[in-house]
Amino acid sequence: MPDNNPFPLPKDELLDAYRRMRTIREFEERLHVDFARGDIPGFVHLYAGEEAAAVGIMKHLWDGDHIASTHRGHGHCIAKGVDVVAMMKEIYGKKGGACEGKGGSMHIADLSKGMMGANGILGAGAPLVCGAALAAKYRAKQKGGPSDVAISFVGDGASNQGTFLESLNLAAVWNLPAIFVVENNGYAESTARDYGTAVDSYVDRAAGFGLPGITVDGTDFFAVYEAAGEVIRRAREGGGPSLLECKMVRFHGHFEGDAQTYRAKGELEDIRANRDCLQRFTQAILGAKAVSEAELQAIDRDVLGLIERAVAEAKAAPPPDAADLTTDVYVRY
Questions:
Q1: Does residue 92 fall inside a structural domain?
Q2: pLDDT per position as a tens digit, 27-86
Q3: Phi and psi of 283, rounded to 5°?
Q4: What is the pLDDT of residue 333?
Q5: Would you say 32 and 252 are in contact if contact means Cβ atoms under 8 Å apart?
Q6: What per-residue confidence (pLDDT) applies to 292?
Q7: Could you tell me the CATH number of the domain that includes residue 312?
Q8: Does 23 reside within a domain?
Q9: For the chain, what is the domain count?
Q10: First to last CA, the chain
Q11: Alpha carbon 177 to chain centroid distance?
């Protein structure tokens, strides 16, 4: 590794991480604008501000690994490699979307990428991940060697759901290669964490089920990357499940149109100025001269071009036909 790169990733991987985070940011900021114009049907929940968690974790994943997301799932999809144009078509409700325009923002899935789906039901991804992890454990036993892993993402509100807590117990009892990520952005919709959750840290919940837990600063890509690498490696080697809490911030409301009257005065301005994970990552890699400003600017141009193309193709694509109503309803084996 070059002397001017003090980071745990080589230069090409740093640039890839930047590209993924920048793509999530620009994707979400464009949706923010287009939703306000009335161009997008349905509800939209944006991931902007949380990019370091999705990318820091997903940098460790293999093609055979699975994730289950939340209603705030665009960032997870992009970080796992779901096609951005197909995602945009899905959000616009058009043919050619990731789910042929039938699921919309909260139900994007791509099993070819191990993306089991975003989910509008709080905590619903956790039991799905137990199933995926059980299958991975079985396959690893059959073939020998390290196991694929399955990762559940939940937010503050879902962490209090019975399905999530039951899944922690099941994963521990069955010693599954599963990781439960709590994206702690401080709010369960509009309820502050301190008001609705008795424990100071979600890691305390893990201890109650016999799981190891780690809390990291979710705005620090490298802190997330290091912690995720530890728990994923442990799961692959048969060490069982873990809980990873990422303390982070979201730049937008719970949903688009949320007035955010529950926020303190100046809170949004403060987190954008002082807790922007993308800005923090950029300053770190530029400050260490691990990459150049020109390289990042070239990525910015590529990403903006991709987002423009995705929106143009989504707007031009046809909606599903009436005849499509009963297709893609059940999986056929």
A1: yes
A2: 999 999 999 999 999 999 999 999 999 999 999 999 999 999 999 999 999 999 999 999
A3: -60, -35
A4: 54
A5: yes
A6: 97
A7: 3.40.50.970
A8: yes
A9: 1
A10: 47
A11: 19
Q: What does pTM read for this prediction?
A: 0.94
Cα distance between residue 134 and residue 149, in whole Å: 9
Residue whose C-alpha is closest to residue 21's, from 47, 60, 2, 42: 47
111: buried, middle or exposed (CB in 10 Å: 19+, 13-18, 0-12)?
exposed
pLDDT at 331 over 70: no
d(CA 16, CA 37): 32
- Number of helices and strands in the chain (H, E): 12, 7
In which residue are the tokens 């937010």 written? Answer: 155
Q: Which residues are 110's β-sheet partners?
A: 115
Domain hosting residue 195, numbered range: 11-317
In a domain, 325, yes or no: no
Phi, psi of 244 (to 5 degrees): -120, 115
Q: Name residue 215's amino acid.
A: T
Token reading at 55: 């990318």
Q: Which residues pair with 214 in a beta bridge?
A: 244
> Sorting pLDDT into bands at 50, 70 and 90, what band is 332?
low
**312 belongs to a structural domain:** yes
> Helix/strand/coil (H, E, C) string of the chain?
CCCCCCCCCCHHHHHHHHHHHHHHHHHHHHHHHHHHCCCCCCCCCCCCCCHHHHHHHHCCCCCCCEEECCCCCHHHHHHHCCCHHHHHHHHCCCCCCCCCCCCCHHHCCEHHHCECCCCCCCCCHHHHHHHHHHHHHHHHHHHCCCCCCEEEEEECCHHHCHHHHHHHHHHHHCCCCEEEEEEECCEECCEEHHHHCCCCCCHHHHHHCCCCEEEEECCCHHHHHHHHHHHHHHHHCCCCCEEEEEECCCCCCCCCCCCCCCCCCCHHHHHHHHCCHHHHHHHHHHHCCCCCHHHHHHHHHHHHHHHHHHHHHHHHCCCCCHHHCCCCCCCCC
